[in-house]
Structures are given as structure tokens and as C-alpha cells.
Write a structure and sequence with these properties.
Layout (H helix, E strand, L loop, with lengths): L4 E8 L2 H18 L10 E10 L1 H4 L3 H8 L5 E12 L3 E8 L3 H12 L9 E9 H11 L5 E6 L1 E8 L8 E7 L6 H8 L19
Antiparallel strand pairs: 1-2, 1-7, 3-4, 3-6, 4-5, 7-8
Length: about 210
């Protein structure tokens, strides 16, 4: 019997971003102690496919590869830190500048996965208790971090559901179409529909 796996669809960041996020996570740990996402590598979450058999997922990959040729690499800009409030906790993240072009790009990407609207971001510390947040945020709120980076591929991770090792590993990396200029694409495709690869799961992914 083929075992079930959890699949995670993300946009990976270059090492400069990963190292900065790691430093911020370690600073947070040294300030407030352990928290969710302390050891997670920097990424932008797109969607989660939990508890799927590989024989269900693998036939979808060729179509997804073709679909993603309709998207160019996207250039994103980090602009400081922000936070989301939850009923009992707060999540701190690196903010990404939102422009009409990036909104269009993410909108078209989401349609391939039947994913609802969400704010793209890079999580620093997930679900921090509010008292710990009050202790940590004064140190992070004025962090001056501006950095531009390019995302050239979509990454699909997976892990065995029943295993002592709960870490995710790369299952597939699918490049975007480098022949397209991002600005030209955004102007041309802002009203062009995309087509989903299947309603496997409509939840937003979170590695944290």
C-alpha cells in the first residue's frame, strides 16, 4: 500500500533572505524563548495538500509544469516587518511590497491551485503568545530591512505522514518562464483567466 504524504507548495527565497530570517528567528528565541517556526527555513506559502498519495499527485505535475510556463519570474521587495493578530497570539513576518503587478502575478498563480486570497509574506515567528509579543515587538518594529529578490521557480515539498522524521524535503522544483519580462506580462495578463489543476485542497499552506 502506498503511504500518504503531506505536500506543501511554496516560493523559496535566496540564501541572503534565508540568513536574515534565521538571524531574526534566533534573536527572537534569545528574547522570548521557543516559538513556532523557530527552525523553519524562510519561504512564501502558497498552498497545502495534506494526506495525499503520490499516485494522486504525480499525474498532476506535467500539467502544472505547462501552466507555470505562462508565468514569468517575479521580483519582490521586502520592506520591514509587520504582524498578524490572532485571538490568543500574534505572528510576526517580513512584509512584501504590494504593487498592481505583484497582485496580478499572485492572483494568477493562486488560480492554478484554487487558493483563496491571502497576503504573501515571510513568517519570522508564528503564533507568539501576546505577552511574549509585547516583550519582543519593541525590538523588531523599527527593523530597517529593504531587499529586492527574484523568485524563479515554484517548489513542492513533501514528507511521510507516518515517520519519525517530520521534516519536509524537496519533491519537485518547477521553473517559471524566463522568456517573459515581469512588467510586460503583468500588463498583458491582468485580465486573462488561469485554470486550476484540481480542487485537491483550498487551504492556505503554512510550514509553521
Amino acid at each position: 500500500m502506498t503511504s500518504y504524504r503531506d505536500y506543501l507548495i511554496i516560493l523559496s527565497q535566496p540564501e541572503s533572505i534565508c540568513n536574515k530570517v534565521k538571524d531574526l528567528k534566533n534573536f527572537s528565541f534569545n528574547t522570548i524563548g521557543e516559538f513556532d517556526s523557530h527552525y523553519s527555513k524562510a519561504h512564501i506559502s502558497i498552498q497545502q495538500w495534506p494526506r495525499k498519495k503520490p499516485v494522486w499527485i504525480e499525474p498532476l505535475i506535467p500539467k502544472l509544469q505547462r501552466d507555470l510556463q505562462g508565468l514569468p519570474p517575479v521580483t519582490l521587495h521586502i520592506d520591514g516587518l509587520g504582524y498578524f493578530e490572532h485571538p490568543q497570539s500574534v505572528t510576526i513576518y517580513a512584509k512584501l511590497q504590494s504593487t498592481p503587478a505583484t497582485v496580478t502575478w499572485f492572483k494568477l498563480l493562486r488560480r492554478f491551485f484554487n487558493t483563496g486570497d491571502f497576503e504573501p509574506h515571510i513568517t519570522i515567528a508564528r503564533s507568539v503568545p501576546k505577552e511574549a509579543f509585547k516583550q519582543l515587538w519593541p525590538y523588531l518594529k523599527d527593523v530597517k530591512w529593504t531587499e529586492e529578490f527574484k523568485v524563479e521557480k515554484l517548489t513542492i515539498l513533501n514528507r511521510e505522514m507516518i515517520s519519525h522524521d517530520k521534516s519536509y524535503r524537496i519533491f519537485k522544483e518547477i521553473p517559471f518562464n524566463t522568456r517573459y519580462r515581469f512588467d510586460d506580462f503583468a500588463a498583458m495578463k491582468s485580465k486573462t483567466p488561469a485554470y486550476p489543476i484540481g480542487n485537491l485542497n483550498n487551504q492556505q499552506v503554512s510550514l509553521f
